[in-house]
Amino acid sequence: MKDTVLTFAVAVLTIAVAADPTVYFKEEFDDGWSSRWVESTSKGNEQGKFKWTAGKFYNDPEKDKGLQTSEDARFYGISAKFDKPFTNEGKTLVIQFTVKHEQEIDCGGGYIKLFPSDLDQKNMHGDSPYYIMFGPDICGYSTKKVHVIFNYKGKNLLTKKEIRCKDDVLSHLYTLIVRPDNTYEVKIDNKKEESGKLEDDWDFLAPKKIKDPDAKKPEDWDDREKLDDPEDKKPEDWDKPEHIPDPDAKKPEDWDDEMDGEWEPPMIDNPDYKGEWKPKQIANPAYKGSWVHPEIDNPEYSADDLLYRYSDIGAIGFDLWQVKSGTIFDNMLITDDEKFAEKVGEETWGAMKEGEKKMKDKHDEEERKKREEEEKNRKEEDKKDDAGEGDDEEDEDEEGAAKDEDDQDAEEKEEQSKKDEL
Predict the structure, then answer these.
(1) Are the CB atoms for 240 and 270 separated by under 8 Å?
(2) Residues 148-173: pLDDT tens digits?
(3) Taking the C-alpha atoms of 87, 89, 91 and 94 in order, what is their torsion angle to the nearest 10 degrees?
(4) What is the pLDDT of residues 347-364, one digit of tens each?
(5) Backbone torsions φ then ψ of 299, nearest 5 degrees
(6) Which residue, 160, 196, 163, 161, is CA-closest to 177?
C-alpha cells in the first residue's frame, strides 16, 4: 500500500514538474532594463532614440513603463540576448508583447524579431538575418495588418492571410503561438484572430501537385457553351446611322458662305439607331465544358515535419522605421506554454487596460474642455475687437459733426461781418 501511494505521489510530482512552463525571456522594463538591451548604431544620425516611460496615460506610472520611440522619421534598433540560446524542437513556441500607439501612428512598424544567437547587436539593421518577425504594421488607411514572417532556408515568407491589427491609441496584447504539429495561432488581447497550418498559409514548400506538362487540350475539345444561331438573320432595315443632321436646325441669317464656309446642320443622335447587330445565341450541342488541366505529383515537393523548428534562438529585438514616433513596447514574453502566456497577459495587459482607458478618457475630456475654453476666449476677444472698432467709428463721426458745426458758425460770422460793412 505504501509503495502504491509513493508511486502515485512520484507520478503526480513528475507530471507537475513536466507541466512547469519554460520562460526563455521575460521583460517588463523595470529599473535595470538598460543593462539587458543594446541599441544599434547602424543608421548613424538617422537612428532614433528610445526613452523609458509609461506615456501620457496609464494605469500605474511605474509598472506600465516601457520603451517608447521618441523621434519622428527615424530608424529604431534595439535588442536583447537570452541567457542561453534554445531550440523549440518538440515544443510550443509563444511570443508575446504589448504595443501602444498613443501617438495615433500614421506610418510605422510595431513588430519584434526573433534572431539567432550570433546577432551583431550594435550593427543590427533591416537586413540582419532573423527567424520570425511578428507584430502590427500601420501605414495610411490601406496597411493595418499583423505581420507573421517566418524564415525558411534563407527566405523570409509572408503569410497569405490578411490579419488586421488594432489601430487605436491604447495598449494591445499580441501573441504568436507556433506548435510542433506545424500549426499556429495569432491572438490579439488574448482572443484568437487567426490560426491554421504553416504549410497552408505560407509557401514553405513547393506545391504537392503541378499541372501535367505533357497534357494538352484536345484539338476537338469544344468549350463554347453558346453558339450564334445560324438561322437568325439581320433584318434588312437594321442598319441605320448612329447620328443624323438635326432636322430642326436652320441656317443663321447672318451666315456668310464665303466667309464662314458651307453651312452644315449640327448632328444629333438617331432615334432609329439600333447598334451593332448580333445573332441570337443557342446552346452548343458539342459543348464539353471547361477543360481542366490534369495534375500530377510534384517531383520537387518534399514534406517537412520540422517547418516550425529553429535551432539557435538567441535574441529578440525591435528593428523599425516610424514616421510619427510615440509607440510604447512592454510586457515581453518568450515561453513554451500557451496557458502560462495567457495568464501573464491577463496579469499585465489585463490588469492595466481599464485604468489606462480611464486615464485616457480623462485626458480627452480635459483636452476637450481646454479647446472649448480657448474657443470661448477667442470669441470674446473678437467681440472686444469689433466693439473697439465701433467706438472708433462713433468718435470719428462725432468729431466730424463738431467740425461741420464749427465750419458753419465760421461761415455765418463771415457773412454777418460783410453785412455790417455794407
Answers:
(1) yes
(2) 999 999 999 999 999 999 999 999 99
(3) 50
(4) 999 999 999 999 999 989
(5) -65, -20
(6) 196
